[in-house]
Amino acid sequence: MQLRFLSTIQKQVKSVRSRHHCGTICRIFCIYCKKSILLQHKNARIIGITGGMGSGKSRVCRYLGRLCQMEVVDLDDICRKLLLPGNDGWQALKENIDSRFFQSDGELDRVSFRDELFKNKQFRNLVDSLLHPLAQKKMNHQLAGVEGMVLVEIPLLFEAGWQDYVDVIIVVYAEKVHRMQRIVNRDGVSEEQAGLAISAQYSLSRKASLAHYVVDNSGSWKKTCNQLEHLSEALGCKD
After folding, report:
1. 128, pLDDT greater than 60
2. Distances from the Cα of 140 to the Cαs of 131, 137, 168, in angstroms?
């Protein structure tokens, strides 16, 4: 089943290349397998899923997790908990960034904090250096003792340099115009702020070129689900 699936995708990619003469389009077309040999952890096969803001990676991750009956670990959720008052991430920020990013009750002012992250690279690098090790420690704790396939949603997988930590990388792709609209609708921000958020991360084309599989989430959810059905077969979680 897997070989037949990959053969089909390769034919589709070849067809796209002949029509568009563009390797980038081929790399982001539907679901594209880049590497045939997947590294294996001793007890678990860790499937890392990433993308860009507004690409729909969380929805894709939840659906694929149900489809394959895989345990799902969410790095965004881990980070949210780290930033609750008194927790390790909150304490690290409290000791290293300006007090103006905290409310009078001690809660992190997420609006001003987010805005500074997106427009100030030096600030972003500082925050990443403080939070990434803590997030990875929590992730390792959740994965301890896990056997079989496990799906881990890591929004900044490439930015954090964690690509060697996982066995398989899935990138959820969406055209920028769709991502911008999703961010504006979801977060209640301006298009300018949405653009800054997107610019603060690696480009999705760059991420797609480094992935084992790419899911194109630019179209309807039904089309995305069809891709995920095929992907579940390629991953070996469906007979």
Report:
1. yes
2. 14, 5, 17
